[in-house]
Write a structure and sequence with these properties.
- Helix content is 56%, strand content 14%.
- It is built from 6 helices and 3 strands.
- Strands 1-3-2 form a 3-stranded antiparallel β-sheet.
- The chain has 80 residues and is α+β, with helices and mostly antiparallel strands.
Length: 80
């Protein structure tokens, strides 16, 4: 089972900041800080999974699974 499929089974199609922080073993505050920095490569990759629903911010679970599996070259042109 891929990371993407496992995460979707556990969390559903969207992740909150708190859920993503738990997966990445970080705090939600440090995750927000990383995403706010324009020069951060990891922040840019995570931003590609971000989606706004009203005022709330979520992350696409499938996209996060792909990033964790090392498939980001499809989105950034770079290899892990």
């Amino acid at each position: 089972m891929s990371t993407r499929a496992l995460l979707v089974d556990l969390y559903g199609p969207l992740l909150t900041y708190e859920q993503l922080a738990k997966i990445l073993d970080r705090t939600a505050a440090s995750l927000r800080t990383n995403l706010s920095r324009r020069d951060s490569a990891s922040g840019q990759m995570l931003a590609s999974a971000r989606i706004r629903v009203g005022r709330r911010v979520y992350f696409r679970t499938e996209r996060i699974g792909e990033l964790l599996d090392g498939q980001q070259e499809r989105y950034t042109g770079a290899r892990a």
